[in-house]
Amino acid sequence: MKKVIINGVLIWVVTEMSNSKCDKILNTSIYVAAHKPFDTPLDEAYKPIEVGSALRECHTGFIRDDTGDNISEKNAGYCELTGLYWLWKNDKESDIVGLCHYRRFFSNKPLSNAPRFFLDANDVTQIMRESDIILPREFYWRNDTVRTIYAKGEGRDKDLIIVRDIIRQRCASFVDSFDAVVNSCHASYCNLFIAPKMLADEYCEWLFDILFALENEVDTSGYSEAELRIFGYISEILLNVWVLQMHCRRFEVPMVRLDTPPLKKIIRYVRDGKRAMP
Fold this sequence. Notes:
Blueprint: E1 2-6, E2 9-13, E3 28-34, E4 46-50, E5 63-64, H1 75-78, H2 81-90, E6 96-101, E7 104-106, H3 121-128, E8 133-136, E9 139-141, H4 146-152, H5 157-170, H6 175-182, E10 186-187, E11 193-196, H7 197-217, H8 230-245, E12 250-253, E13 255-257, H9 262-271, E14 274-276
Parallel strand pairs: 3-4, 3-6, 4-5, 8-12
Antiparallel strand pairs: 1-2, 6-11, 7-13, 9-10, 9-14
């Protein structure tokens, strides 16, 4: 793959493919963040990774995020991002990488959580012919914005103020995209994505630079256990900011949860004021 920018738009050219059809299924690694054993999807593209491995004595037998270059000990605040950091620093073989959770997966069937409908390496290869990144379908809120939802949930508005200031200092060109995302009524959540490894590497370099700066500047005194996951929650917003700023061609796919029947999920989303099911 190689990066090309045409009229300000980032385009990833997949050199392994012909114009007419895929000659080769790309080497795809979709890492599944987990902290306990679970039934893994059948497709070999899925690679379970135990996040927060450094914080426990009993392990799952999955890839551990406390090997190689890692931030496993930060899992309490960074959540699945310790797995993202690991794949950024240690996966040197994959053409395509992704991140999902042991309960959340990309699926071709939004009304079914059966693993046979999850995206596989062939699906991903086909999508990557014309897209830069795969994201979950967006949440759409009736009476809220990304900012107000963050404050109503497990975050504090001052977190966003600090993040904006860090972005202003470190990459000022991203400020307008940050403002656009936090003031909008829609976004992709949960830190799920699939993208070319080179693109993911660029994103991670930008993301963790901001999060490490935030860690040094934010005062989390008095934060609840959930609020201390600030870095995981903030990154959900920042992924949308980066995709917008980089003009990435996004391809949205339904996200399903293994622990929630699809019909109950729809009812809950309607109750919570969402206008569309992600």
